[in-house]
Specification:
about 280 residues, two-stranded antiparallel sheet, 10 strands
Amino acid sequence: MHAAASPPQPFFLDTGAAARFCLYHAPLGPCRGAWLFLHPFADEMNKARRMVALQARALAQRGHAVLQIDLHGCGDSAGDFADATWEGWLDDVARGAAWLHERSGQAVALWGLRLGALLALDHARHGNAPPALLLWQPVLNGSQALTQFLRLKVASQMLTQGGDNGGTAALREALAAGQPLEIAGYTLAPALAQALDHLDATRLPPPACPVHWFELVADAARPLPPAAARVAEAWCRQGAHVRTQAVAGPQFWATQEIAECPALLDATIAALTGTTHAA
């Protein structure tokens, strides 16, 4: 059993329109590493908070500094979701990493969940290679992720209007014409949608750092999903150091009730620290 780390310290990075809400998990004992967490998209962020908190605490107990940052227009940070841009989120990653580096004295590794993992990969390709990447169920194709989000709007239209009004194709046309869309309580701006449409992990260069890649599956005996396996294998052929692992557990970012996946916590701690997890 590890001694308990200090409670996370909430603060705002900068003020006014630049204010980004953060939670800092100080390392217990000498600092052995630093991780910046990048959250998933829209309501997935809220569903995942419990698991992220558990993993951050476990890392802090083992001497790792962890910073959670709410990106522009998300969570408790300044701005509206309608004003968020992909470039702005990349800037937030750089700002969070700079703060954590100054605070911890360590090179900052990136830990991303779902779209946050794609954000980490995109940040890394801009000459910002971190010492390591931790990818939890990474979104590999921004266009597919956008389509899935637009389907929430289509489903709502079918319930309230009795039809899909042209489906996701019509919604994409509206975005292309410059029309923001209200989807599941979030206003999606055309610029953000366009940026997502052009993001594809298969077109990014292989990461120049070790990658710890975890996918949640229904049964531990199942292999990595084919799309993930193809990308990981392609990166390895190009000389990247990628370790993949399928873990059985619920897709906690999408469940109706808040869910936990202890197996993912255990596997992540084992991969990053060479020890087993103990809360």
